[in-house]
Amino acid sequence: xxxxxxxxxxxxxxxxxxxxxxxxxxxxxxxxxxxxxxxxxxxxxxxxxxxxxxxxxxxxxxxxxxxxxxxxxxxxxxxxxxxxxxxxxxxxxxxxxxxxxxxxxxxxxxxxxxxxxxxxxxxxxxxxxxxxxxxxxxxxxxxxx
Length: 145
What we know:
Elements lengths: L2 H9 L6 E3 L5 E10 L5 E7 L4 H7 L18 E4 L1 H6 L5 H7 L9 E3 L13 E3 L7 H4 L7
C-alpha cells in the first residue's frame, strides 16, 4: 500500500479535492497534517503553489518564519517524513547552510519557506521540532533591561 494511502487510512486525513472556479479553471489542493511541538495534530488543506510556511501561518500553526521566506534565517525549520523528503528536490546550498543553524536538525529537516505545496504533500505529516530559535514560540519572554 502506498504510504499516503496508509496515512490517510490510519489518520483519516481528508483526500485532496479540487474546486472549479466560475471561469472553468481548477483550484488544486493537498490535504496534510502538522504535528505540533506539543504532539497535537493540525490537519490542513492547502492550495498548490503556496509555501508550507504560508499554509502554516494561514492555519495558526506556531512557526515563526522571521525572514518572511527570504531564506535568511532558520526559524521555519520543519521535519519531513523520509518518503516526502526523498520525493522533493534537493535543498539549495544556502538552505543547507541555514539548516546547520537550526536546533534539532535531522536528516529530513527542511526550511518550510522553501517548500511549495503540490500533489506530493497530499496525506503527509510535517513535524515541528521541539525547540526553535524563536523565544516567543519556545515560551521564553525576554525581560527589558
